[in-house]
Amino acid sequence: MDLNYIIVLFVLTFLATVAFTYFVRHTLRDADVSDSPIVSEHRHKAGTPTMGGIAFLFAILFIVSIYYRNTNILIASFIMLTGGVMGLLDDLLGLKIKEYQKVVKNVSDSVVPIGLLDLGPGEEARVTTDKAKKQVYGYVDEGKLEIVAEIPIKYEPSEKTKIIVQLLPGLFLALTGVVTTLGGFTLGILAYPICIIAILGSINSINLIDGMDGLAAGIVAIASFSCCIYAYICGNMDMIPAFAILTGICLGFLVFNRYPASIFMGDTGSFVLGTGYAVAVILGDIPYFGVLALAVPIVSVIISLMHRAHIINLPVEPLHHTLNYKGISEVKIVLSYWLLTVLVCAIGILAKLYIFA
C-alpha cells in the first residue's frame, strides 16, 4: 500500500463527509431535529441541528462501496457502523423529553447555597438535585433567586442498558478473529475483554468531550492524523487506512461544526468516532501511542469520575463546561484542548524517533 493510495482514500472520505453533512444538515433542519443545550452558557445554540453523525454513516458506506476488498477498511467500517447505529438509537430516545430543569440566577448580594453549589451574586445554575428542587421556591419567595429559564432534559436509558449496548461493537470486533496480538502480547481469549473495554472506554471518552463546537471532531482529527504519522514512521502502511478515514470524517465535519457550529454530531457521531478510533488502534497494534494521543478526553473522563465520586466538586460537568462557566470563552477552551492534543502527540512521535527507535 503506497502513500498515493492513502491520500486518495483521505480525500474521498473528506469530500464525501462534506457532501453528506451538507445534505443531512438540510434534512434535519426541515425535520426540526435540533439540540436543546443543558448548559446555561450554551442556550443560544438551541435550534442547531443535531444527529449530524448520520453523515458519518453515509460517508463510511460510500468508502466501503469502493474499498470493500481491503480487509482492514471493511472490518473497521463494519464496527464503526455498529457503533453509529448504537448512537443513533440513543439520539432517537433523546428526542423524548424526560423533564424540564429550571435555571436560576442569584439576584441577591450574598452567596446562596443551593443543592451542592454555593451560588455567587449574579451567577446562574441548573436546578438538578432533589435538595436543590426543594430549596428553589423558598429562595424565589425570599427574592434571593430568580428563575430565568427552563431547559428540556432528554430521556436517557439506564446506565446498565447503555453499557450493555456499548459492549456490542467490541464483541463484534473480537468475533471477527483478527485481533490476536496487541502491544507485543498474544491475547488468545483475552481478545474479547480487551476489545470490549477499549471500545467502551473510547466511546465514553469521545462522547464526554463532545460538548463544544468542533471540540471532539478536532481532537479525534489530530489524534488520528498523528497515528498516521506514527504508523508511517514505523514503516507499516497497512496501519494507516482506518486512521485516514477518521481524519477525513472529522475534518469534513469541521467544515460545518467549527465555531460557530451549524450542526452537531450527536451520539451517532461520537459513537462512530469512539468505535472507529479504538478499532484503528487495535488493528494497527499501537495501543501505547493510541492511548497517549487520546489523553485529553481520557483525563476529562477521570476528572468527571472524581467529581461523581465526590473527590472533587465541579460546578458544571465535564471540565470544559466548568471552564466555560468560570468565564473562559468557548473558542479559547477548544483551541487549548486542540493544542494540548497536538503537544502530547508530538511528544509521543518524538519519543518514538529518538528514544524508542
Secondary structure: elements and pairs:
Elements: H1 3-31, H2 54-67, H3 71-93, E1 97-106, E2 112-114, E3 117-119, E4 124-126, H4 130-141, E5 145-154, H5 159-175, E6 181-182, E7 185-186, H6 191-209, H7 215-234, H8 240-257, H9 266-284, H10 287-293, H11 295-308, H12 319-325, H13 330-354
Antiparallel strand pairs: 1-4, 1-5, 2-3, 6-7
Helix pairs in contact: 1-2, 1-8, 2-3, 3-5, 3-9, 5-6, 6-9, 6-11, 7-8, 7-9, 7-13, 8-9
Walk me through what this model shows.
This protein is mostly helical. Helices cover 63% and strands 9% of the residues. It has two domains: 3-96 and 156-354, no CATH class; 98-153. The protein has 13 helices and seven strands. The strands form three sheets. The chain has a three-stranded antiparallel β-sheet with strand order 4-1-5. It has a two-stranded antiparallel sheet with strand order 2-3. A two-stranded antiparallel sheet has the order 6-7. The chain is globular, with a radius of gyration of 21 Å. The model has no long low-confidence stretch (mean pLDDT 90).
TL;DR of this structure?
The protein has 357 residues and is mostly helical. Helix content is 63%, strand content 9%. It starts with a helix and ends with a helix.
Instruction: Estimate the mean pLDDT confidence.
Output: 90
Low-confidence stretches: none
Shape: globular
Structure class: mainly alpha
Provide the domain count.
2
Helix content: 55-70%
Largest beta-sheet characterization: 3 strands, antiparallel
Q: What is the ordering of alpha helices and beta strands?
A: HHHEEEEHEHEEHHHHHHHH
Proportion of residues in extended strands: 5-15%
What is the count of DSSP helices, taking H or I runs of 4+ residues? 13
Radius of gyration: 21 Å
Spatial order of the strands forming the largest sheet: 4-1-5
Distance between the termini: 23 Å
In total, how many beta strands?
7
